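Technical annex, item 7. During the second reporting period the consortium partners agreed on a shared format for inverse folding records so that results from different sites could be compared directly. Each record opens with the tokenized structure and is followed by the designed sequence. A conforming record, contributed by the partner at site C, is shown below for reference.
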């Protein structure tokens, strides 16, 4: 077995030696050899010296490959010092790390720093080792030196690598303080702002990170790393983020990954208007990009635009059906097609789409759609029986079945039954925030406002960061024209938690309308309608426009809302109060 090891050592030597021999002191900005360098008068092309270095490297590599790390480290480090080779200093440090001896690795890197003080790479190695050893102050000094020695054209790329290293310091505040010190001279560089912003995300300060991303994009409008940081903190100020991203895409219209990240961020904040516009733009720019078609189809379905939804979903399925990475999306698309068919009364077609859902995918959603289809055929109890067959062996499965059954009744316009289902399980789920909230919403739809208010007040008291409860309670008070100051306080708190959420913006507008401040009401509702053209929001905006004397636009907005949801109570109520019909 000796010969293969020797062969490995030989090829390693070929890889290292030419580069090592090329690293003369002159190539390192005047760095001078240390005391262990060749004696005065020795020539770098002296055959005896070359043979000795060759032998040291060969022995070191053989030792490394046979598990004799101490010998390998000693031989390679000596060769690195003799040859003043950055490559061999790195190699000796790597051998030490493989042996688990960080201190030996640091000795090798410090020797490298002594012989090549202008090497940014040596300072980078030192910083990483010092962080690993918990010597953060020394690491900060090494990083400062590394950046100062990095050529200006390469500095932005290096700056973007630093957050991961600072994060390994453990303590977030120590890491952030160190980062501020190191990055201070580069704060005006977009990459410096992004690097600091990434650390601020980790430290739990998304607003500061958003500000860093904003500054970076203002300085360099098409900087991808800044756009990524902005989207990571999108919820801080979605409207500002949307404006910055629109500018970014004027310069980089083909950046499909970031456009879809923008879509995902907007959907996370219920800004479906923004998400749909960007997904549609993506289908225009790259018609073969399947995921964008799925987003377009599902949003159009949610809006009741069934024909447009079906066109988009069919495009998605044509592109994605044979792509194994899209199996989950194919399942969702088939379910959406089934839903669209069912809404149009084509139950047999809906069944056909359900049969095309890939095996094992979305079993609960498939069961729900089958149950809805049965009910729409006049077999309500058969639909209930189908959902009753879902697993109920654990508390989680029982919870899931109740939520699904409630959704079944809500879809079929039986709000009282939906509320009774959830109320029956409330005792077992009394500390489940989402379950309590869903029960409150079911109570509201069933006209049981006292029960709804009690449940929401419980959540507001115990879950100060659960935005939906604050918004729902505030909106409910305003809608019933009760205690508008309290309603305003509740919704303002929700707005601080979710600044760009269209439903919160809608609540702010409705409170302003109830308070008689029509200009502010219109401003809030225009923002909400742009972010999400939802029928309920459209009904509110139409009514405010009507009261402000803009009858033509009020009628147009209300007509758009009616087309989406002709039986929505908010839409029909606005139509009655405005005296219009479609």
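Designed sequence (site C submission):
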């Amino acid at each position: 077995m000796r010969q293969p090891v020797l062969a490995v050592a030989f090829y390693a030597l070929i890889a290292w030696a030419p580069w090592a021999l090329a690293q003369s002191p002159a190539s390192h900005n005047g760095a001078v050899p240390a005391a262990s360098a060749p004696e005065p008068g020795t020539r770098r092309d002296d055959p005896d010296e070359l043979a000795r270095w060759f032998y040291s490297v060969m022995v070191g590599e053989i030792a490394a490959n046979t598990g004799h790390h101490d010998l390998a480290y000693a031989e390679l480090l000596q060769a690195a010092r003799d040859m003043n080779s950055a490559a061999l200093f790195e190699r000796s440090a790597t051998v030490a790390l493989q042996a688990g001896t960080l201190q030996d690795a640091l000795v090798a890197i410090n020797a490298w720093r002594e012989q090549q003080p202008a090497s940014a790479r040596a300072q980078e190695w030192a910083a990483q080792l010092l962080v690993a050893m918990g010597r953060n102050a020394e690491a900060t000094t090494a990083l400062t030196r590394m950046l100062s020695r990095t050529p200006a054209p390469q500095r932005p790329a290096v700056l973007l690598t630093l957050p991961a290293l600072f994060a390994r310091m453990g303590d977030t505040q120590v890491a952030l303080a160190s980062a501020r010190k190191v990055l201070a001279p580069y704060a005006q560089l977009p990459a410096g702002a992004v690097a600091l912003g990434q650390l601020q995300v980790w430290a739990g300060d998304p607003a500061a990170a958003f500000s860093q991303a904003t500054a970076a994009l203002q300085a360099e409008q098409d900087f991808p790393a800044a756009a990524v940081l902005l989207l990571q903190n999108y919820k801080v100020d979605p409207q500002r983020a949307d404006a910055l991203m629109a500018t970014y895409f004027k310069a980089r219209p083909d950046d499909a990954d970031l456009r879809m990240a923008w879509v995902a961020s907007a959907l996370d904040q219920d800004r479906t208007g923004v998400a749909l516009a960007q997904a549609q733009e993506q289908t225009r720019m790259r018609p073969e990009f399947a995921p964008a078609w799925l987003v377009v189809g599902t949003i159009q379905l949610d809006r009741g635009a069934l024909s447009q939804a079906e066109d988009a979903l069919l495009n998605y399925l044509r592109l994605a059906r044979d792509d194994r990475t899209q199996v989950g999306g194919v399942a969702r698309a088939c379910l959406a097609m089934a839903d669209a068919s069912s809404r149009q009364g084509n139950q047999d077609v809906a069944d056909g789409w359900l049969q095309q859902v890939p095996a094992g995918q979305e079993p609960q959603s498939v069961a729900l759609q089958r149950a809805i289809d049965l009910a729409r055929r006049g077999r309500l109890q058969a639909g209930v029986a189908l959902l009753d067959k879902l697993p109920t062996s654990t508390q989680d499965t029982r919870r899931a079945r109740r939520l699904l059954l409630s959704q079944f009744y809500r879809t079929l316009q039986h709000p009282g039954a939906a509320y009774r289902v959830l109320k029956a399980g409330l005792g077992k789920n009394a500390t489940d925030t989402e379950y309590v909230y869903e029960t409150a919403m079911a109570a509201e739809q069933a006209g049981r406002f006292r029960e709804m208010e009690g449940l929401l007040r419980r959540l507001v008291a115990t879950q100060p960061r659960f935005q939906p409860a604050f918004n729902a309670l505030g909106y409910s008070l305003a809608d019933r024209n009760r205690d508008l100051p309290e309603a305003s306080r509740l919704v303002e708190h929700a707005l601080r938690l979710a600044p760009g959420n269209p439903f919160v913006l809608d609540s702010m507008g409705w409170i302003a309308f109830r308070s008689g401040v029509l200009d502010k009401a219109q401003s809030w509702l225009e923002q909400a309608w742009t972010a999400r053209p939802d029928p309920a929001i459209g009904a509110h905006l139409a009514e405010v426009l009507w009261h402000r004397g803009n009858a033509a636009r009020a009628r147009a907005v209300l007509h758009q809302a009616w087309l989406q949801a002709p039986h929505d109570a908010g839409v029909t109520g606005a139509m009655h109060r405005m005296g219009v019909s479609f």
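The first helix runs from residue 2 to 22. The CA atoms of residues 259 and 278 lie 7 Å apart. All partners now use this format for quarterly exchanges.
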